[in-house]
Design goal:
The complex is a heterodimer. Chain A is an all-alpha fold. Chain A has a single domain, classed as Orthogonal Bundle (MetI-like fold), CATH 1.10.3720. Helices cover 67% and strands 1% of the residues of chain A. Chain A has helices at residues 26-36, 38-55, 57-60, 101-137, 139-153, 157-168, 172-199, 202-209, 214-250, 262-273, 279-306, and strands at 82-83, 89-90. A two-stranded antiparallel ribbon of chain A has the order 1-2. In chain A, β1 and β2 (89-90) form a beta hairpin. Chain B has helices at 2-30, 33-37, 44-53, 60-72, 86-121, 126-140, 143-157, 182-215, 218-225, 230-268, 273-282, 286-314, and strands spanning 170-172, 175-177. By secondary structure, chain B is mainly alpha-helical. The longest helix of chain B has 39 residues, at 230-268. Helix content of chain B is 75%, strand content 2%. The chains are: A mainly alpha, B mainly alpha.
């Protein structure tokens, strides 16, 4: 694989690269630079904990919040630390249906992370392919695609998602679809920008002169060199997708009640907020906030690492 | 310039057409609004009558054509629920939303620009670092959750500010405005602050990045060499070059504030058009959804156009082109 020495080659890892000349793969360099940034490290640890909690939710949750036989409506809206009839302690209280809030949060985290990551990943693949094609083809196709991107980006994501969900209705698959529709354009524009720069570089000329097929040049030569900015955008977009999903679910047009994400949990507690039962909304929101902050911390650090021009 | 305006107008009309076709077809496929309109005890004859009276028995293209021809004469159909013109419903609610968005934008600028300039001039200072940490937090705080926390804190616990509604308004040129009454202001403060929080962070980051970039340019070095006082360099030369690009952002952000007002309006029961669309989506009130979409497309296109024109005025290097 032809590799240019632009972004990845110029990373300084503050002393860590003294003894490691053999493992200079760009991926390792980025990881090691990330681990040396304290804030990013906090972000990574938090995200890992959240993902682990989400994956293991059925095993570690004190109760299955969607198994009606385990719920007791008499336990509804108990404050944090209360004890139920059968001796179980509700660490952070219960919601209006008597669900253990901690369990509900663990299950909600599953849905939120699933929706956020899958929508961002699919949007990345679609957006990156379109952007790459647009940059490589140039001309009319490029002008047309970028006009579509421009027009779409001039509308706030929430508006597009709103209209889309008004048409589609509720459901995990539908919200993922709506999030893909709102996000692909960001990736398309990002990768087109860097692909236009990369296309003019010498290594592409070299590959062309070797009569390599277009597809190979695109995906094996240009694409890898366009990845750094794309990764930064993707990280931030995952956070945004999770936030948008929560917002839409809060508005009652995202996920159905049967598959509550963190946003829906917060929405459930909204009614009881004014009567002082703060915990039903507060704790799911806190977890959501921590998750988003953690991802953004990683994204922020990645941007500084992958963009050597930016200081501070 | 006129060529530019023409091409932009054509683009807006095209966007409107495409969007309306997509949404119309989509809403048609989703389901029958009759089910929402009728009570479960309705007889089949009543059902047929309702279907006919709303024109739902015609084929979809004919319904669309009817919608289109009527839309051209300013009639976007009657709301299924309120049985009033959808356009009127939305226009009645629009001032409340615009007021909220404008006030939020002003709050964003008043806090965002000074903090951003400071963080850009002294990137290493402790204050700047806390400002930047705050901005990450502001970026990550879900608007709706922080709105709830605000209600909890300032309305429920402290009882300082009202939790919902718009309060007293004073008509200004026939449009109700709540900026000039104490009651109106007290109702406006929390929702506006809630909506502005995300924008403050964004403006801080953009201003800071702009200041840092501009400070490294040659003309700043030249101004220093000339012996100009630092304050003059910052307030005149740097600020001017930083703020001009911000115009584009502010325009886009005004649009996004109007869209995100949906969330804030839901939390604070603010009687704007965002609350209206959410309710309309819940009951599949087709005409209102379509009308809302049409109005926002026009509104956003106008905002974007104004921003482009304004930009070309303040920055003569930018030329507006008719075809691109």
């Amino acid at each position: 694989m032809t590799r240019d020495t632009n972004t990845a080659g110029s990373i300084h890892v503050g002393g860590a690269d003294v003894r490691a000349p053999r493992s200079r793969s760009p991926f390792r360099q980025v990881i090691s630079a990330l681990l040396h940034d304290k804030l990013a490290l906090v972000g990574i640890l938090l995200v890992l904990v959240f993902i682990l909690a989400a994956v293991l939710a059925p095993l570690i949750a004190p109760q299955n919040p969607y198994d009606l036989s385990q719920l007791d409506i008499l336990d509804g809206r108990l404050p944090p630390g209360s004890q139920s009839m059968n001796g179980m302690v509700y660490l952070i209280g219960t919601d209006h249906q008597g669900r253990d809030l901690l369990s509900a949060i663990l299950y909600g985290l599953r849905t939120s992370i699933l929706v956020g990551i899958s929508s961002a990943a699919i949007a990345l693949v679609i957006g990156a392919s379109i952007g790459l094609m647009s940059a490589y083809a140039g001309g009319r196709l490029d002008a047309f695609l970028m006009r579509v991107v421009d027009i779409q980006l001039s509308f706030p994501a929430i508006l597009i998602a709103l209209i889309f969900l008004a048409i589609l209705g509720q459901g995990v698959d539908k919200i993922i679809l709506a999030l893909i529709v709102t996000q692909w354009a960001y990736y398309a524009r990002t990768i087109r920008g860097s692909a236009l720069v990369e296309r003019k570089r010498a290594y592409v000329d070299a590959a062309r002169s070797m009569a390599l097929p277009d597809r190979r040049i695109l995906f094996r030569h240009i694409l890898p060199n366009c990845l750094p900015p794309l990764i930064v955008v993707a990280t931030m977009r995952v956070a945004y997708a999770i936030m948008l999903e929560a917002t839409l679910s809060f508005l009652g047009i995202g996920l159905p009640v049967t598959e509550p994400s963190l946003g829906l949990l917060i929405s459930n507690g909204f009614e009881y907020l004014l009567s002082g039962d703060y915990w039903i909304s507060f704790f799911p929101g806190l977890i959501l906030l921590l998750l988003i902050v953690a991802i953004n911390l990683i994204g922020d650090s990645l941007r500084d690492i992958l963009n050597p021009r930016r200081e501070g | 310039m006129s060529g530019y305006l023409l091409s932009r107008s054509i683009q807006t009309v095209l966007t409107l057409l495409v969007m309306s076709v997509l949404v119309f077809a989509g809403l048609y496929l989703v389901g029958n609004p009759v089910d929402v309109l009728l009570s479960s005890t309705a007889t089949p004859t009543e059902r047929l009558e309702v279907i006919r009276s709303f024109g739902l028995d015609k084929p979809v293209w004919e319904q669309y054509w009817l919608f289109l021809t009527r839309a051209l004469s300013g009639d976007l159909g009657n709301s299924f629920v309120f049985n009033q013109p959808a356009l009127k419903l939305i226009l009645n609610r629009m001032p409340a939303t615009l007021e909220l968005a404008f006030v939020a934008l002003v709050i964003g600028l008043v806090f965002g620009i000074p903090l951003g300039v400071y963080a850009g001039l002294k990137p290493k200072s402790l204050v700047s670092k806390s400002v930047m940490t705050f901005s990450i937090l502001g970026f990550s705080l879900p608007t709706f959750w922080i709105g709830l926390v605000m209600v909890m804190l300032f309305s429920v616990q402290l009882g300082w500010l009202p939790a919902s509604g718009r309060g007293d308004t004073v008509p200004v040129f026939g449009v109700p405005v709540s900026l000039f009454t104490l009651d109106g202001l007290s109702h406006l403060l929390l929702p506006a602050l809630n909506l502005a929080l995300f924008k403050i962070s964004l403006i801080i980051r953009l201003t800071r990045a702009g200041v840092i970039e501009t400070m490294q340019l040659d003309f700043v070095r030249f101004a220093r060499a000339k012996g100009l006082p630092e304050r003059r360099i910052v307030t005149v030369h740097v600020l001017k070059n930083t703020l001009i690009p911000l115009i584009t952002v502010i325009g886009l952000e005004l649009g996004s504030l109007i869209a995100f007002a949906v969330v804030t309006e839901t939390i604070f029961a603010w009687p704007g058009m965002g609350k209206l669309i959410i309710d309309a989506i819940a009951v599949l009130d087709r005409p209102v959804i379509l009308a809302y979409l049409m109005i926002t497309v026009v509104m956003f296109s106008v905002i974007n156009l104004l921003v482009d024109i304004l930009y070309s005025i303040v920055d003569p290097r930018v030329r507006l082109e008719g075809n691109s």
